[in-house]
Write a structure and sequence with these properties.
By secondary structure, this protein is of the alpha+beta class.
């Protein structure tokens, strides 16, 4: 059965074979044309018309078309009419060249053509079918692929990097010319070779290849040996290519490796050179110009060592630099940095640094700003730091010695004359003076001509207690070549003496051996040392006085308390009342004396407030006139714009009264007292000369008299307690000691100016305030208020404990009594009803009052606390000033003051949180 018969048989099974064939013919993806014997296109489908871009005209005959004849299509059709099936290869065909055809579209296409005869039922050939297939897209795609392949090959062959394609086993199957150059062999000789053939470090290569196979891509370096024996360094990049192939790109990095090695060697040489020269390099980024200290700072190893850091870390922030800069030099360093950033562009400064062990070194920092090309934007500071300590020390020594003789005479004389110290140049053998500067004349009172006639021994002073021989021995040792520094009492031309510090060295000037003496006047420094010693002595006495007063207050609490209770229970006609009154008055006098002791020792409790000294003096003027007597004239000179001071009013009165009465006693035959106030500002220079004073605004209170004056010996002891020059019974020696203690407690200063027979002036400097806070007045509590609350009393002194218990139980309170903190805690745990108030001494063994209060508040958060103490050197009082928010009762206290303070504390709504904050 022929193919046609078989198809006819299959079509018979289709219900409408004509419709099927019409559909296939019309919509087939190839062009169909049925051509009759006359060459006329009888029938064509849609793809044929699309392919040729036209409609076949009714009178078109292919046998008359020149293009059909030239292209061979006509011959194919004629052969098919003879019974052949003819195929053509793909060829380019442009239907727009056809004649006698109206072209409405069309384009040049690549087609293939098949013609075959169409037989009728009687086996005759009635027409020929021409099948046109469009290969344009296929050819275009093939041409594009070939073009892409050519471009790839061009890149492949022209790349300066070696490129190779490896098979699954790692053998070269294609390489470019650069690969042959890098590996040292022609490309055709590399084919089928394994990529490891040239490797020297086989283990490294195999390890890298395994990692590549695991990851799918990898970059590594290897060392190879080429066929000519040369060694090269190669960098590989490998990645998967297709399914079983590897794309390998490699570069010859031999020059780069050599450059890196040279760089490492240069860096090593630089590190050694920096270490030898003590020069470190650094750079600081300037990304954040607004906050320069937020940028990154990078140091070389030597720079790290200069600043005292281990060279493990080289990247820092500027804080590491500033931590090492000497505090006194930070401003000049910052000024130099700002100058570089804003104006000069160059950072250049010498300054000191402090290493972790406390050693001071001198460094020189220099840097320039690196800017961005074009914009000029600052990128970073690049600079060096050199340790110039030894150089500076050498320069300093040479400047003092030989440098002065090597420079010109004019410069030498200028330095010599303008030196702050007195300078003497002596002959080594005779000790005679050969040259002096201006300061030497000022110090000695001699002219240069007079000094040239003298020697070292002419300035010796025979002061008592001073070892003159020791100074002369130091001069002899200096003459022998050992520099000496010593203190000396120096006698001037007018026979007055001054303390000086002498530096003596031996030097060679103009090839002659000389002795150079650098003499500095330290008279004021000596006086300051004496003042400091006196202040330390007074401080020690004050501590002793405060300690005595603390113990005495406990005794007075008992004496005064019980005597007041007994007086309350006695009638006016009781024969013992006068005796009890005497005891009570004596106790009050003892309490006043204790208060003076505490004031001197700066241990007293103060309630300071802003006050105006002018107002206080005006209020005391009439009283002072009565006290000083009619033969003493009182004059006040008060600054109307006087600042206020922070001072306890009662102690302010004590200052004025004690100084006025002391002045009156210095004028037994009458005289005048001048009380003066004024504002003053003490500057930094004054503060440097008086270390106990801080610079700032002060109010000065001056009390002057024209009495007998005070001798130097008396001035050295005048502020000591119980020291007096008065007759026995005329004074206790506590007046000026009390004033001293009050002034020091107020952070002030008291100075005395006096000469025998010329009167005395006391000057008190108190820190000034400008704005005074409002002070609310407190209402007085009833004398003996009652209550029924439960109070925990903790007091380590048994007699005081019994006295307080008696008073409070009399007032109706329930008392729990303990002698120390641990006992109190145990007692509270056994007492289930709770407590409303803790009344505790501040200083006790094992646990102080504040610690006890904090422990109890864990169980009683709202517990009220009242502290009591006979001494203020404890956790309640800070710097001698009582915090107003803390309930506190000063010993000694009376029964009424105790009862009143207890009631006030219980009724006060102040929370425990505020109280705790005040204590801290």
């Amino acid at each position: 059965m022929s193919d046609i018969d078989r198809i006819s048989q299959q079509l018979s099974a289709v219900s409408d074979p004509k419709a099927l064939l019409a559909g296939l013919f019309s919509f087939a993806p190839v062009g169909f044309a049925v051509i009759g014997r006359e060459g006329k296109i009888i029938l064509s489908n849609r793809e044929f018309l699309n392919l040729f871009g036209t409609e076949a005209p009714p009178d078109y005959r292919i046998t008359t078309d020149n293009i059909a004849q030239r292209s061979g299509i006509l011959g194919m059709i004629q052969r098919s009419f003879q019974g052949e099936t003819v195929h053509t290869p793909t060829f380019w065909y442009d239907p727009r060249e056809l004649t006698n055809v109206k072209i409405t579209g069309g384009k040049r296409v690549a087609i293939s053509l098949t013609t075959f005869p169409l037989h009728s039922a009687n086996k005759e050939i009635q027409s020929v079918i021409a099948v046109f297939k469009d290969h344009t897209a296929e050819i275009r795609e093939r041409e594009s692929a070939e073009s892409e392949r050519d471009r790839f090959r061009a890149v492949f062959d022209s790349s300066m990097n070696g490129i190779a394609i490896l098979d699954e086993a790692g053998r070269f199957i294609d390489v470019n010319p650069a690969a042959g150059i890098i590996l040292g062999a022609p490309p055709d000789q590399l084919l089928r070779l394994h990529h490891a053939s040239f490797s020297i470090d086989k283990d490294n290569l195999q390890s890298s290849w395994r990692r590549y196979q695991s990851l799918g891509q990898l970059q590594w370096e290897d060392r190879i040996q080429r066929p000519d024996g040369s060694i090269r360094y190669v960098e590989y990049e490998t990645s998967r290519f297709a399914t079983n192939y590897t794309l390998m790109i490699f570069r010859d990095i031999t020059e780069r490796k050599q450059a890196e090695q040279e760089l490492l060697e240069k860096q090593a040489h630089l590190t050694v050179s920096q270490s030898i020269a003590r020069v470190g390099s650094w750079e600081q980024d300037l990304d954040n110009i607004e906050d320069i200290d937020a940028n990154t700072l990078r140091w070389s190893d030597e720079c790290c060592r200069i600043f005292g850091y281990e060279p493990i870390q080289t990247e820092y922030t500027p804080k590491y630099f500033w931590d090492r800069v000497h505090p006194a030099d930070r401003q000049i360093v910052d000024d130099a940095m700002q100058e570089a950033l804003k104006q000069s562009g160059t950072f250049n400064v010498e300054h000191r640094i402090i290493l972790p062990d406390g050693e001071q070194r001198i460094v020189h920092g220099r840097a320039d700003i690196l800017r961005e090309p074009g914009t000029g934007r600052m990128l970073k500071l690049i600079g060096t730091t050199q340790d110039i300590t030894e150089r500076k020390q050498t320069e300093t020594l040479l400047q003092k010695l030989n440098d002065q003789l090597r420079i010109s005479e004019a410069n030498y004389r200028e330095i010599f004359e303008k030196a702050a110290d007195a300078i003497f140049v002596h002959d080594l053998k005779s000790g005679g003076i050969l040259d002096v500067n201006h300061q030497a004349c000022e110090l000695t009172g001699y002219t240069p001509e007079e000094l040239f006639q003298l020697s070292i021994g002419d300035f010796s002073a025979k002061e008592q207690g001073y070892d003159q021989d020791k100074a002369m021995q130091a001069i002899r040792e200096a003459a022998a070549g050992k520099p000496q520094t010593f203190e000396w009492i120096f006698r001037r031309k007018d026979n007055t003496t001054r303390w000086v510090e002498v530096n003596v060295i031996r030097a060679q000037i103009a090839e002659e051996n000389r002795i150079l003496g650098f003499v500095r006047d330290i008279e004021e420094r000596k006086k300051l040392a004496v003042q400091l010693l006196q202040a330390q002595r007074l401080e020690a006495i004050g501590r002793l006085a405060g300690g005595v007063a603390h113990d005495f207050n406990n005794l007075l609490t008992i004496i005064n308390g019980y005597s007041e209770l007994l007086l309350t229970d006695t009638t006016p006609d009781d024969p013992n009342r006068e005796l009890l009154q005497g005891i009570h008055e004596a106790g009050k006098m003892a309490a006043a004396l204790t208060k003076q002791l505490l004031a001197f020792g700066r241990r007293s409790i103060l309630t300071p407030s802003p006050m105006q000294l002018n107002t206080l003096i005006a209020q005391l003027r009439n009283l002072l006139r009565r006290l000083i007597g009619e033969d003493v004239e009182l004059e006040t000179i008060l600054d109307p714009a006087l600042y206020q001071v922070m001072l306890d009013p009662a102690q302010g009165e004590q200052i004025v009264m004690n100084l006025a009465l002391n002045a009156r006693d210095a004028m037994p035959t009458g005289g005048s007292i001048i009380i003066e106030t004024r504002n003053i500002r003490l500057d930094e220079m004054y503060a440097e000369q008086h270390p106990e004073v801080q610079a700032g605004d002060y109010v000065v209170l001056s009390v002057s008299d024209n009495g007998v004056g005070i001798s130097k010996e008396t001035r050295d002891h005048i502020f000591e307690p119980f020291f007096t020059t008065k007759e026995i019974g005329k004074g206790a020696g506590m007046g000026l000691a009390t004033v001293y203690g009050i002034v020091k407690q107020a952070e002030g200063q008291i100075l005395i100016y006096s000469e025998e027979g010329h009167g005395t002036t006391f000057k008190i400097y108190l820190p000034a305030i400008v704005v005074a806070p409002e002070v609310e007045s407190a209402e007085l509590a009833p004398a003996m208020p009652m209550g029924d609350e439960t109070i925990l009393l903790v007091e380590d002194e048994e007699k005081v404990r019994k006295y307080v218990r008696l008073v409070l139980e009399t007032c109706g309170y329930q008392l729990l009594v303990a002698q120390d903190g641990p006992s109190a805690l145990r007692m509270v745990r056994r007492h289930a009803d709770g407590i409303q108030l803790l009344l505790t001494d501040v200083i006790m063994p094992q646990m102080n009052g504040h610690q006890l209060a904090e422990a109890l508040r864990k169980s009683y958060p709202e517990l009220k606390v009242l502290y009591m103490s006979g001494y203020t050197d404890d956790a309640v009082v800070r710097y001698g000033i009582l915090t107003s928010q803390i309930p506190f009762l000063q010993k000694p206290f009376t029964p009424s003051s105790l009862a009143g303070k207890v009631r006030e504390t219980l009724d006060n709504p102040v929370s425990s949180e505020i109280e705790s904050a005040a204590l801290e």
